[in-house]
Amino acid sequence: MNECYIELSLPFYPLIKPVEEFIIQLPNVNGFPRLDRLLDIEFINLDLLQYFKDKNISIRENFILWNWAVKPGITRLPHTDGDWRNNDNIRRRTCGINWNFTPGTRVEFYSKEGATPVFEDRGKHDFSTSWKNCNKIKDIWDTPGPVLFNPQVPHDIKSNDGIRRRVSLTLRFNETFESLKKKLNV
Question: CA-to-CA distance for 95 and 117, rounded, in angstroms?
Fold first, then answer.
């Protein structure tokens, strides 16, 4: 069993129109260009929404269209989505199903063995944990997807030479990786 991601065979394009029609440049946030967008699920393919409804899968009211800047030569720490500060008050993001629209980009997943969590609080909804000494790659997702993505495994976005942006989509659910895996029977 792959704990990082699971390839899915969903026969639906996720959006109601081509992804290129959703890509815009948004204003700077804290001095950095913010290119990702939180969009209402009204823009998701109705057949796909019905598919999840039929499986009793609780989908969130919005999804994220990511337009990541991939910076060659800049090393970032792998991260998990959620707060790993302590065992009493852990905020974890629920999992999602992801599509990648940029060939030549990938998500590298890393082992937590010997790694140290580093938390930076950026607000109520923007939280993740970086991982120092987290350099052993355990898996790579480099296909278009869709994949059931486990956000609690340290990961980072990478690209081939010459690629500066990665456009991807995360359809979000009120489900854990384990519960969604069970409901999708994967």
Answer: 20
Give residue 36's pLDDT. 74
Burial label, 110 (beta-carbon count in 10 A; 0-12, 13-18, 19+): buried
E runs forming strands in the chain: 5-7, 28-29, 32-33, 37-40, 59-69, 79-80, 96-100, 105-110, 116-121, 127-132, 137-141, 147-149, 155-159, 165-173
Q: Parse the chain into domains and list their residue ranges.
A: 5-184
Q: Which pLDDT tens digit goes with each residue over 18-66?
A: 998 887 655 555 555 556 788 899 999 999 999 999 999 999 999 989 8
One of 2.60.120, 3.40.50, 2.40.50, 1.10.3470 is the CATH number of 5-184, namely 2.60.120
129 DSSP β-pair partners: 80, 119
Q: Are 65 and 19 in contact (CB under 8 A)?
A: yes
With beta carbons less than 8 A apart as the criterion, state whether 19 and 63 touch. no
- Which residues lie below 8 Å from residue 8, measured CB to CB, with a gap of 6+? 97, 145, 146, 147, 148, 184, 186
